[in-house]
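User: Predict the structure for this protein chain, please.
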Amino acid sequence: MARDTAPPISTTRGDGGEPDDDLIVTRESLDGSATALSQWEGRAWLLRRDQPAEQPDEPPGEPPSGGVSEPSPLPAPGKIMRIVWSNSLTLRQKALRAGGIALLVILTTYLLIGGPAATPGVITRAGDALNARLRPPNPQPTLAERGYVFVKSPPGSYNLPQISIAPVVDRANAAWACWSSPFAPGAQRGVPTAQAFYTESGGARWTRLQLPRSGAQHCTVIADGENSASALVFLDQGQAPDGSCIAPFVYFSADSGQSWTQVPWPLGPSESACQYDAALEGGAIYLWSRAPLLREASLVAPPTSRLIVSRDHGQTWAAADEGLNDAVGYDIVGFRPGGHILARVADVHGNGADSLLMSSDDYGASWRALGRIPGGFSQVFASSDRNVTDHGGWGRLYVLARVIVNDSLTLPPAYALWTGYAGGQWSSIPLPPLPTGAAATADANQPLVIGVGPAGSLETERGVLEIRDAQLNAARLLWVWDPAHAQWLLDPEDVPGNLALEGASWRAGDQIIWVTTLQLGVPPVLKIYTKTYPADLLAHIQRGQPTPSSR
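Assistant: Here is the predicted structure, written as structure tokens:
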């Protein structure tokens, strides 16, 4: 049979030396063919035996004449034979060993970078990278480098879709930033972790802040309007299983984030209004919402506690809407030092679109009316510069509202602008011009007010440009109303559709706005910029930059 006629296997080393180890095999494990024996000899999982096998007839170390060992036939079934191996590894063994070492290195690296917790992020980034090669993103409108100053992003925030940035009002180069991410360093698997930073150098250097608590669905930071070293951080905890909103964790710092004090939530730790706004003015904390924020002991209607204030960092809270008819809605226009508040309140005696201007000089303990506001469903804008206190303490005001004709809102909607002072008369001003040849569509017709800038100027966007990418909003034109010369000035640099205004700070009467732009691509890159108004805008105009008629 073929099994009995298989070629013999050498029992000594090829160089005539002693065998290294005794490897054993039984005849039943072989098929007897030369091919099978050759393949079998190259495998590394054969049994190794330390006990000596049956010795050959010739003594060790004395090979037959010619230095070549005599062939030995295969042993009978059940017998043990000596197999002599070469010291060198075969090509296949080398490949297996190299593969094992590579696998060990990969496994060690995988565990060092986060193991299973980091896998989703790695897979996502790999998929994004592949998608970027297969479908390169279209060119995105970006901010012009000559008009904006790039700010270095805080560490770890470059690819975040959302970040909260709060510029310090009275320090042009200082700002707070915070966000929440499930991939932050030290985060538990699947648990978003809040990160907070502070800069005093315009973003050249960011200082990481140690928050008392890090777990949060979202993180929001609010800078004090009067004190550059103070801020509030809100750590949103999301919703309970029954759909109710859980109270956020709120922390206050008076030393640029070096230490924090927890602010007790007015409704307790387990209950919160799902939507609310907040402000910090000279250490006084304001909260306002469409729902009551305090539990009232009496059934007396006013105040409804939809606007509340704490002057001791949340240890006690007081209603700040005494005498303010807030049942039908209101908006906070602004704050000034010493407990001054300006608000727009719906006029219950009007046609449903009318509103009144109201002010308080005692942290909301009492309110007085300053007259009706023109237009319908109006928005009122005041300067965020706390040093602007002329004309009743608020400086020049602006109103953007729907046009009312014969006590009815016009259809299709038309908009108008007014300017004036608190308690005084309002005068109409024209809307910013549209680009030459542009159609006055509903989207293009409505201006978007950014805010009140230096010297009582008004910053607005109006005029939709060509949409350069379907993922972005349309780019818009930026206009500044110069009240001293009653004219609109055009910023020659368009506002890209992926820009978000984060806030403003002030320096010697100039306004420095902070903006972010999310560069859509793979991965999305968050960029922060600042721009000074109106100094740069006036410089462009004086150099003969493009005007509306030249577009």
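Residues 184 and 426 are 51 Å apart (CA to CA).
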